[in-house]
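Hi support team,

I'm filing this because I wasn't sure whether my run with iron/sulfur cluster finished correctly. The job status page said complete, but I'd like someone to confirm that the output block is well-formed before I use it downstream. Pasting the exact inputs I used:
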Amino acid sequence: MQTIPSESLAIDRKARVNLPFNDLDLRPAHIRTLDFDEVVIKFSAERAMVEASRCIHCPDPAPCMVACPTHNDIPSAMWLIEQGDFCAAAKLYHQTSSLPQICGRVCPHEQLCQGSCVLNKFHTPVLTGELETFAVEHDRCRRGLHIPKGTPTGKRVALIGSGPASLGCADQLVQRGHAVTIFESKPAPGGLLVYGIPNFKLPKDVWFQTWQQFEEAGVKFVPNTYIGKDKTIDDLLSEGFDAVFIGVGSLIDAKMEKTPGTDLPGVYEATDFLIRGNVAPDLLPAEKKEPLRIGKRVAVIGGGDTASDCLRTALRLGAEEVTCLYRRTEKEMPGGHKDRSMAREERAKYRFLTQPVRFIAGEDGRLAAVECLQMELGEPDAKGRRKPVPVEGSNFLVECDTAVLALGYWPDPVIGDTTPDLATHDWGLITASSTTGATSRPGVFSGGDCVTGPDLVVTAMVAGRRAAQAIDEYLKNPQS
Ligand SMILES: Cc1cc2nc3c(=O)[nH]c(=O)nc-3n(C[C@H](O)[C@H](O)[C@H](O)COP(=O)(O)OP(=O)(O)OC[C@H]3O[C@@H](n4cnc5c(N)ncnc54)[C@H](O)[C@@H]3O)c2cc1C
Ligand code: SF4
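And here is everything the job wrote out:
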């Protein structure tokens, strides 16, 4: 429900529809590719107030609120920002979101809140994501970030993985007075917020300030501990944890099956490439510390947002020519238009209907070219996307010294394999209720990418928050 009912506002909605729109300010492409700093230039207070005043305050429930997976009270926040009460707006975001300073930056707004804004029918939607970032950052600079701690219950919950799903869960458990310990296989907490999403979209210091807020609320972090290998879920329950939440993501890079040469020096998997390209060496696991050897010509294979992230990372690492190879057309690309258009502005090129079939070594034994086939679109597949079909004899070479495989992600089956009676499906995704996160094992809950497959920061966070509510009910009455 909207905190500030839209019908209580005496505003001229027709006049608001026609207010001029100024798009986001971005750092110029030729400058921003020289570093890994954030691309979007933050709003000033004046600019934020003007942009928020374009909101026409739709009747409750406003479409933007419905489309936001965590149902932020966007219209009320817009009103508070317009009035200059930024801290009150931030407070609203914190009520429904555990990571507003992050979601405001990385959510695909054009598919969520902004995409459903009624102003799309007239001209351009309100820049809701940027306004969320502005309000929360303004508040953080003045008051810091604090998770209000609940009265201690004496119950202990183990969370496995430290990405958005576990963070949403931890936030809500701490507020209910439960003690939270997060076990993480990597050296630093954050999941893909650290070891995935590049700095130019989400600066690491934003994450580390967020993490500090969790530590100050008493969340304990145990790094370098791979549950399923170093210890099991049953070990955690025997150690006295009263419940377990599994938020291990879906992090195994999809392989390019039956394609010779993927093991050549110069061919990288997307995760390896992004981690080593974007993360400071002191946060890298031992096996990732060797610096990347980036060449002059880079080919990125795949069509999702990860492919755009790899293209843009390669440009920042100094590559001169960066090309995306995708087997369908742009229309079928799963990645968002916004990331692609920024990649294009930064000089990335796209070759559609192109399927790599072989990675070829040069005289030095390193990658020198990718042999590709020209494709055409055939009949729709099970998901309704037209299948790419090779054109016989159309083989051609794309010369490159580095190739990055950004083909998608699979779940890691280790948790399912080492936890008796934990139901899994589709190569290791954990079977869990979409409303409570309850799994087939009493006291064991799960959410985020390890349940849904690769999705979004906001949806993983929401799953963790929902599971926390169910864990709280379970802890009060374990027999139910
Ligand atoms: C390159 C890239 C860019 C992306 N960009 C965006 C974006 O711009 N916007 C957006 O909304 N989404 C983006 N996503 C998707 C988003 O990051 C994920 O959907 C989200 O992080 C999922 O959260 P999670 O908590 O489920 O898992 P993760 O963030 O993957 O976290 C899982 C954590 O569990 C740990 N772990 C795994 N197995 C174990 C184990 N057995 N024991 C202990 N720890 C374990 C992992 O090390 C990891 O830290 C991106 C994804 C990628 C790969
Ligand atoms: S969480 Fe994401 S979808 Fe929801 S209001 Fe913020 S940016 Fe929009």
